[in-house]
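PT: before anyone asks, these are the final sequences, not the draft ones from last week. 1171 residues across everything. Please model them as a single complex and drop the result in this thread when it's through.
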Amino acid sequence: MEQTLRVKRYDPENPGDAGYQEYNVEVTDTTTILDALLTIREEMDGTLSMRCSCRASICGSCAMRVDGQAKLVCKTRLNSVAPDGETITIDPLGNMPVIKDLVVEFKSFWDKTRAVEPFLKPEGIVPEAEYIASDDDMVHLVGVVNCIQCGACVSDCTVLEVDDSFLGPAALAKAYRFVKDPRDGHQKDRLEDLNKPSGVWDCTRCMQCVEVCPKDVDPMGRIMVLRDMAMEAGFNNTSGSRHTESFAKSVKKNGRLDEMKLAVDSMGKFNFPALIAEAPVGLRAIRKGKFPWKAHKSSEPDKVKQVFEKIEGNK
Amino acid sequence: MYEHDVLIIGAGLAGLRASVEAARMGVDAAVITKVHPIRSHSNAAQGGINAPMTDRGDDWEGHALDTIKGSDYLADQDAVELMSREAGDAIIELEHMGVIFSRNEDGQLGTRRFGGQKVARTFYVGAITGSAMLQVLYEQAVKLDVNVYEEWFVSNLIIEDGVCHGVMAMDIHTGELHMIRAKAVIMATGGAGRVFEPSTNALICTGEGLGLAYRAGAPLMDMEMIQYHPTTLAGSGILLSEAARGEGAYLLNAEGERFMKTYAPDYLELASRDVVSRSEQTEINEGRGIDGNIHLDLRHLGRTFIEERLGYLQEVALEFAGIDLAEASIPIRPGMHYIMGGIKTDINGATEVPGLYAAGETANVSVHGGNRLGANSLLDTVVFGRRAAIAAAEYAKSAERHSSDESMLASEKERYQALLDRPADLRAAALRREMGESMVAGIGVFRDQKTIDAAIATVENLRSLYPRVAVDNKGKVFNTDIMAAIELDYMLDVAHTICAGANARKESRGAHYRTDMPDRDDENWLKHTLVYKDGEGSRVETLDVTITNWTPVERVY
Amino acid sequence: MKYAFYPGCVARGGTPELLVSANAVMDRLGIEREEIVSAACTGAGVLQERNQKLGDALNVRTFALAEKMGLPIMTICSTCQGVMSQANRRVLRDPEYLAEINEVLAEEGLEYKGTTVIKHFLWVLVEEIGIEELQKTFTKELSGLKFAPFYGCYIVRPSDALGFDEHPERQTSLETVIESTGAVAVENDGKTKCCGLPILLINQSNAIQMVSNHTGEAKDLGADAMVTPCPLCHLNLDGYQPKAAKRRPSGKIDLPILHLPQMLGLAMGMQPKELGLQRHIISTKEVIGKAAAAPAAVS
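LR: through. Structure below.
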């Protein structure tokens, strides 16, 4: 049967001609989007530029946006996206400048990867044979080494959409891989760097990276663990860690969230400039009767506290 | 002016390992690659890397013998010895660089069994060993600040008076052609799987490195030795690692029997790949296939084991065949996978063209001879990638920089322009497909004079049609259309040399199995075939195999 | 139908108008409910980043309480819904983990048996009540009005924790409900993106930019209001809109943000005060006026 692919074209040598081009392709139930694009490139229109190589979801070349969402097109069947044969739209990845058609500039992606020092940094005497390490530790890392650096997460990250300085899910997941490697001797330094602005605390927890990752790397989950590890390592002087601590304290005490306290604690109780800057927002809220003066409680806050204590111990 | 002491073409495992060695030596080296290093096809290797670890009870002679036997005695034994001896250090070095190899209960490196070996000496990372290793080599290249010409397409070598002085390449982002001069060039461009259709190989495996060396005067050795991997997915040809069988999976025919007991009563599913592929093909040809396929059964390994140790296999099975390996067996068949043949080199990667070195799948030392053991390719890349760098650097020290003729660049530009100017006629992809299908039919698991002749005829015909290949894309930026046309030019040469080798070798050995000459003939054919470019055609010479300690005997699994 | 009602912390705190309007609308729809008064905050993903198990335990406790009540849980907050769905999935997939958590809850005499269903009010409307029954409660047809949907990350991702396989209609449920009122659901790119609230106190600049992008886009597309099923999104999109407006060349946005029940309340002909519409930072006067002027619903 025939299906239509609507593909975004852009040629820097003829920028005025940019736009969508429609192609009708013969497909079957098992045809992947890459199969269809290759048919277009090889049999219909050799001017279409795209990156693709292994066809087996291991090289990471063919990530593109399909109906607005980043996917690896070699492993995406047409009928999984368009079960009734509807037209599908193919765009290049987001958050990266377009070079031509479906090819985007990955320089920023690779620069950010480099920024996290993505190589093992052992300390101390190098053993004659291998470093001794547990299989559990190594198997745990396989989950994040599964990342094929395809760029899907970076493409759809909602923070990168507004702020290109954010390290991004791919680089942070890569950083996690080294922080969690028992053979690396620089865990604390790495955490300190990741704790800085544009690092782990800038993730907005929107789960786009988790949703689009074709390899179940779970970048957001790794970022969350890095946050926890940073706090455990004693890096507590960020509004992010203060926010988390305050949240936990509030729920432990009342069973519920005390929003006002949370806001103040996150900014820093003595951070007068920040507190003053927020005053207009606070005042507006008060005027409208929305200011959360009184903290709400669960009907059994002691039971909630019990759960905290059983799991975290008496802190 | 782009100039280096050593230029490495290809950023897969062999190329990156060479670059790391060059950087450690403080040599002015650069890597040039048509895709980002991480995208290189090394990432598709799944099962593991062999190494005899002498510090824990294994012996290198055992690995060497397995390799030599696996090669059907075509491997040069001095080269194999060297690889087996250096393997242990290579693994430890990889681990020190950061590869996340699996571990045993004592926290030491863990192993699995692999084809053609009784001892479990294959070190691995799940079913993504190649990807895991490539990532680490890339990380080391980043750490050492290796210079990479990323997404540059090498379309020609600079050869003057028979000596290699660098390359001519297109910057894919701008379409501009440049000369990059180098005192020594290391060809590490991998295999040429796309000369066959289907193949497990990536679309980028077009073998222009082999073609470039061939045209420069370097002979291609044992090109008839084409490995058909026993377990490739029916349809797409995507690879399912030998690791499945290494961890205990069965091969079943339509009668549900483990037929390998007939063909390889000792090694069963872990016989050498050529033996297993022939066995499967025989079962299929004799009507005991299931819809023309064999079934690979992992169910008895259990879901947890499959997901932990063979995760990527499960992903491939689910995504590309809709099969859950814990619940059902999966249809597979032999598929073209690897070229044992390649640019002839010595044990230091030197080819017959001064200034030109080669390492990895693109080279033929020969360590794999007539058939490669699984998990030996990853070993080959790091051992010989390193050696080639050392040799190339040494050569570069004493080589004089040559101020090359700019007119060479002008002719290369004309070549591109001719393709661009040609009005629409034949498409490169159409010719490639026809070549690929005829090569699988002609130089397949089983071949004979008839099938070989048919392949030769097709390739010759396509070569005569090549001047009519035109491109749609007349632009400068990211013109993959023109790259495909030039790749095809070299692919036709590679196909030609494969046919020439198959035609020349009048015996069956390793992966070259002729039904019209089914016996191995050590008396006349314990030799390599060497195909040299000769005018418009080629000539085939032979070279004795180097025998050191292991006398060729009958090969039984 | 009766539900174990879980309003969440913010519906009582920073967005009291949500609880007020939700109660009013649910009464009109005849949805019986009993609040799980002992339940703790879900953790909103923040607690989980500090200690995943702690967050899961608190949520499983809530599930166990609902089980004791013999009722399914209904939420009115995308974040509560998402966090609970994820927690539920985690423990249902891992019986050993659930057993560990149940050990903690045993001290209180609670045990989660794995049967609790958690649905957002939005899903209840589409799946349990049904659009036809819902429309019977409308006295107005809001034709001529345009509402931009804004889901909130936690009710659309990750898709495999939210039952989209079984209920694919959930992915367009907000548009469905908007359209049921007679209004047009505006096609906006931002509808499943992030409002920025989780980083509001950490990187305010980025959070503000997100608000500016999404509300600005909807305004430019002609929306009369944005409708969201998440009070956390509301806090940011409404509360910080004045600051966000400064990011636009015009300096203006002025897009009122409606909680889902408030939009329904307008279609039901309820008074603005009944729906807490006076409590918004961005004035809702214009959209209230348009709704009031809308024709009567055809029965």
